[in-house]
Amino acid sequence: MTMTQQLLLPSTKEVFNKSEKSKESFFVKMPADIMHYVHVPNYKPEYNYLYAIIVDYYNVDYGYAYPTEWQISRRYGKGIQTVRTHLRALESFGLIKISKPKGNKIYVPYKPLSKRELFEKCPEAQKKFTDNKQAEDAERRRGGRI
């Protein structure tokens, strides 16, 4: 497949209504505050999906998640080296704790900082967020499509 070709998948044509309960669907809970981390320098938005995978594997009875790196790799759609690198990145951003007491690694997902806390601890994130908001406001004043 070349760069100019696109893979098109059919849609269900059903509107996703997040307020409806469904017996056929299972949803992973993810704290909304993690969405602000995309403004942190060197933070990749795909880390949010990896965080959601760890949260989904979290076992309340044990107090940690214990998927293998291969299990994570399959769900994340990335190779093992990328998985390892991205897991270390999540740990460096304070979102998970990785340890290996014996056997497989275990992962403890931490609650993300609130938007206010994040911006206090990382002024660069607040600046990026503010710059984006100002650009949006300027475009709106020019009558541009938002």
UniProtKB/TrEMBL annotation:
Domain of life the protein comes from: Bacteria
Gene3D superfamilies linked to this entry: Winged helix-like DNA-binding domain superfamily/Winged helix DNA-binding domain
Protein name: Helix-turn-helix domain-containing protein
